[in-house]
Amino acid sequence: MQDILQRPAKALTQAQREGYFRDGFIGVECLVGQQWLDKLNAVTNEFIQISRSVQGKDRRFDLEPDHSASSPRIRRLNSPVDHHETYWEFASQGPFVDVAEDLLGPDVKFHHAKLNFKWGGGGEEVKWHQDIQFWPHTNYQVITIGVYLDDVTDNMAPMGVIPGSHEGPLYDLYDDSSQWTGNIAERDIPQLNADSAKYLGGGAGSITVHNCRSVHGSPPNLSPRPRPLLLCAYSAAHAIPITNLTAGGKYAEAIVRGKPARWAKFDPRPVLMPPDWSKVGHKSIFEHQQGQ
């Protein structure tokens, strides 16, 4: 941490960097500029229109059960960087890379991306969980950076993160029958201090950043408007994925800043292993948590 903080910052203030290491997350208002937002929203609107002709399962989309051509309801656009170059241009050359360098050091890898819509009028909650159990690495210098593509107010279910939870335990995301649920069990909720969660909204272009161990989630979106949040995960170059979850990704493990690591680093703390996605197939967190 100290060696990272001693380096000059590219996008964040020193106080914001220190806040990330202390709390496990930060929110920064309106960091992404209008030019990027216009490009991202234009291509996102294209995919909303494409989704109108999609029914059932599609590798691009995770759709809510009542999605229809006349009333599209997308939960997630899967791996958007694989489906349009604008998303990859942003993920590899946009302000996220500077933020990642500020928090991970000079050598940074891209891991994966997704675009969660949290559609209006009841868009599904995301239950409390941690990310790293879905995609374990050899250490915990892994972050997810999100940008809100539109204004997000308190009634639009902004993401909530529990301060300091990145320094706490990793929770078991299997149920009593050894089935993967993708969320922290009800029996463990009292340990979370969930009342302390900070909810990170803001104007269009505001970003969220959280460590892979941080406990986070969001309630249903009961407002009439969707809440599109583009999320990109990055790691220090020396953090090596343990599973092959993103092995087929077009840009998975691409170096976006600096150089590849010659040595892997191993954190002595254990990490929960998910199911073997190559055998059981990976679903979105919405499908896992809703038992679909």
What this model shows, in words?
It contains 8 helices and 12 strands. The chain has one domain: Jelly Rolls (Sandwich). It is α+β, with helices and mostly antiparallel strands and 292 residues long. Strands 1, 2, 3, 4, 6, 9, 11 and 12 form an 8-stranded antiparallel sheet that branches. Strands 5-10-7-8 form a 4-stranded antiparallel sheet. It is globular, with a radius of gyration of 18 Å.
Q: Tell me, rounded to a whole number, the average pLDDT.
A: 93
CATH architecture designation: Sandwich
Work out the count of structural domains. 1
How far is the N terminus from the C terminus?
Answer: 40 Å
Task: Determine Rg (CA atoms, Å).
Answer: 18 Å
Biggest β-sheet description: 8 strands, antiparallel
Task: Tell me the name of the CATH homologous superfamily.
Answer: q2cbj1_9rhob like domain
Number of discrete helical segments: 8
Low-confidence stretches: none
Structural class: alpha+beta
State the total count of DSSP E strands: 12
Give a quick precis of the structure:
With 292 residues, the chain is α+β, with helices and mostly antiparallel strands. Helices cover 22% and strands 20% of the residues.
List the helices and strands and how they pair.
Layout: H1 2-5, H2 14-23, E1 25-28, H3 34-51, E2 61-63, E3 74-78, H4 80-83, H5 85-93, H6 95-104, E4 108-116, E5 126-129, E6 142-148, E7 159-161, E8 198-200, E9 207-211, E10 216-218, E11 229-236, E12 255-257, H7 277-280, H8 285-289
Antiparallel strand pairs: 1-9, 2-3, 3-4, 4-11, 4-12, 5-10, 6-9, 6-11, 7-8, 7-10
